[in-house]
Amino acid sequence: MTDRKSSPAPRGAYACQWCQGTGFAARAAAYVSGIDPFGGPAETVRRAGQCRHCRGTGVYDSALDPTLHDPE
Fold first, then answer.
1. Residue 37 backbone dihedrals phi, psi, to 5 degrees
2. Distance CA 12, CA 59 (A)
3. Is 8 within the bounds of a domain?
4. Is residue 26 a part of any domain in this protein?
5. Helix%, strand%, coil% for the chain, nearest 5
6. Please, which domain of life does this record's source organism belong to (predicted)?
7. Based on the structure, what is the number of domains in the chain?
8. Is the dihedral of CA 22, 70, 12, 7 positive or negative?
9. How many angstroms separate the CA atoms of 72 and 68, rounded?
10. Which of 57, 60, 68, 71 sits at a 20 to 30 Å CA gap from 6?
11. What range defines the domain where residue 59 resides?
12. Residue 51 lies in a domain
């Protein structure tokens, strides 16, 4: 067993609600053979990828969320 010391979360940061604090989220990709990408049955593949809201850290901080746009 290893002792793992975790650093405290920054003020205002919480466990990411989109990945439940794991840092990974499921991504789905579809492939349709042929020239028409919407014209037939698709093969779907699901893979784990880095969460785009917390950037894979598992800790959500709204100031660092790349999906939020700054009002201009």
1. -70, -15
2. 10
3. no
4. no
5. 5, 30, 70
6. Bacteria
7. 1
8. positive
9. 12
10. 68
11. 44-71
12. yes
